């Protein structure tokens, strides 16, 4: 029998997952449009190293420590891949690949070396542990008597979600120009490098906030797949952002139901549902294309016979 | 698992060394096989990865490795066995499916190639993890250890796995040797290969199949997540050392084999350690060392070259300035102060003094009283430079329709680069012009001797 308490747990999980998916979708839109999908992949991997290092150096896992560590490593990944690309004349995807595999490896090695000391293990690097999110709560005031404010991961992603939404709302016109007309942006005196690294900061923050919930690798699915579905349908940047958010929320609901039904990992199920929604969209588009072709062919035939 | 403190224990160090000695004594048959397997895998993956790199598809291997995961899980879920062949078959099928998706999406939809790669990678991986979590919630026998595929664990490899590994990697290496010419042709010039009537599609598919095979067979050892690095990093490192494809492949193979065996050893000493990350760390080390010290394309060498060039340019600029001053004074006096030089050429005092010192050391400039004068050798060199500068100006104004100010800027750069041969060619083109577009005389070749 599902009791009230279980309902509340489910609610926290779904709320966290929704915010994670929505933030990822918004950032993902820009990654897709700027053809930096692979940079998103790279940063989401390297962030692991940032989290582990921040934890080992600072000794705590407070929100701000984690965020700072992840943002620093995320920006370092972006900067290193770019300088490697320029200095060594490697293709840019090759230099991205070299940097992020190294960072991720060091992260995994540190995790397995200090398994006893950090509450991180190889499992949660992969899946996250969204099912346990409600149990790690923020307590206001004294440990014993303070009020329970709800899950830590929820507050972290809420902060990041607000930051991402605000930056996109405020910088909308700038981001649009930089994304669609980079050379126009340069001639208008917009600092393209700043906006590039600004976007990378958003990606890093979103990834680290999603880390608790979905792990390092499944974030990529949430970053790229809903935004790609939206890309197929959208006609303007604004509409693409809304569509991506809609797709991401759909994935969360379907995925949660799926995991409940199959008793599978929640995070993986959400990512799989995102993929399934993309496949469905593609199918509809292909079928419509096909019907249209048939239609034209018929018109052509009737035109010939007339 | 072992923490850091345990390692600092002296007796454990000794134990580690003993383990290593045991590893290299080849007494433990399993360890020897793991070593052979990792060497072969490192070699074949790096060699085949080199072709992916040259076709500018460096991260294809990453996506294909991730795409193998759902196949592995599905195969296990359906058959309930963990035989090497079953797992291999499942991985192969889903990896090929992944390859097809990556190929299909950008061709038939708006989705761009990089997004297609990321979509396939993350979706297939999520599917694999979902199946894995399903398997772990069931009570199927021998389900433990499937998650070792994610980061690889050399210590958990069975002899059956190794056999398969040896077969497949040998097949890959032999295929590359057999079709080396065709692969090379397609890698460097796909269009040309097509016009020659080579069946490009067939060979591209063969290459993709080889990539998939190496990726899939390496999962046990390197793991899904980091397979990308073993395909990509060795060739990227090798590229700093040579430009010739056969050397590149050889080097990449050696780098790959070396790192894979290091990873296997660490995994043998500390069985809880994932193998993949250690392989990647040692590969990256090789990469960064190559990047820094490679004799032709290394960063240090290129920096030194750059500095040498900058010094030479600065020196030559001073020589030219001294010559110009000489000209303005109608060759009447030959000692000029620092102030006179800086009035004519925009240069920092500090740099100027340093450069003058260098020139003195080379005997091109002498210090006279408070000023500096060109020596005979210096004058010769300065005339040569001036001659080239003015020749180039004349050439540009005659052939490229540039204004006199524009030609001066160009010539400022070219005077340092032109050599004897170029000079003669320009002279032949210009047919005995005596002055540059600014009306200044072009000094003839043997001015000094005539004077």
What does the model show?
The complex is a heterodimer of chains A (306) and B (451). Chain A has eleven helices and two strands, in the order H-H-H-H-H-E-E-H-H-H-H-H-H. Chain A has 306 residues and is an all-alpha fold. Chain A has a domain at 4-217: ABC transporter involved in vitamin B12 uptake, BtuC (Orthogonal Bundle), CATH 1.10.3470. Chain B contains 21 helices and two strands. In chain B, helix 3 (29-54) runs antiparallel to helix 11 (200-222), helix 4 (60-79) crosses helix 5 and helix 15 (299-328) packs across helix 17. Residues 1-7 of chain B have low confidence and may be disordered.
Can you give me a brief rundown of this structure?
The complex is a heterodimer of chains A (306) and B (451). Chain A is mostly helical. Chain A is built from eleven helices and two strands; from the N terminus they run H-H-H-H-H-E-E-H-H-H-H-H-H.
User: Which residue ranges of chain B are poorly predicted, with pLDDT under 50 across at least 5 consecutive positions?
Assistant: 1-7
User: How much helix is in the residues of chain B?
Assistant: over 70%
End-to-end Cα distance of chain B: 86 Å
Quick check: average pLDDT of chain A? 85
Q: What's the order of the H and E elements of chain A?
A: HHHHHEEHHHHHH
**What is the CATH superfamily of the largest domain in chain B?**
ABC transporter involved in vitamin B12 uptake, BtuC
Quaternary status: heterodimer
CATH class of the domain at 4-217 in chain A: Mainly Alpha
| CATH hierarchy: architecture of the domain at 4-217 in chain A | Orthogonal Bundle
Estimated helix fraction of chain A:
over 70%
Q: Could you give the order of the helices and strands of chain B? A: HHHHHHHHHHHHHHHHHEEHHHH
What is the element layout, followed by pairings?
The complex is a heterodimer of chains A (306) and B (451).
Chain A: H1 4-33, H2 37-58, H3 63-88, H4 92-113, H5 122-127, E1 137-140, E2 147-151, H6 152-170, H7 172-180, H8 182-187, H9 192-233, H10 237-262, H11 266-305
Antiparallel strand pairs in A: 1-2
Helix pairs in contact in A: 1-6, 1-9, 1-10, 2-3, 2-4, 2-9, 3-4, 3-9, 6-9, 9-10, 9-11, 10-11
Chain B: H1 4-8, H2 10-24, H3 29-54, H4 60-79, H5 84-108, H6 113-137, H7 148-151, H8 159-178, H9 180-188, H10 190-195, H11 200-222, H12 227-238, H13 245-269, H14 275-293, H15 299-328, H16 338-344, H17 349-361, E1 365-368, E2 371-374, H18 376-399, H19 404-414, H20 420-430, H21 447-450
Antiparallel strand pairs in B: 1-2
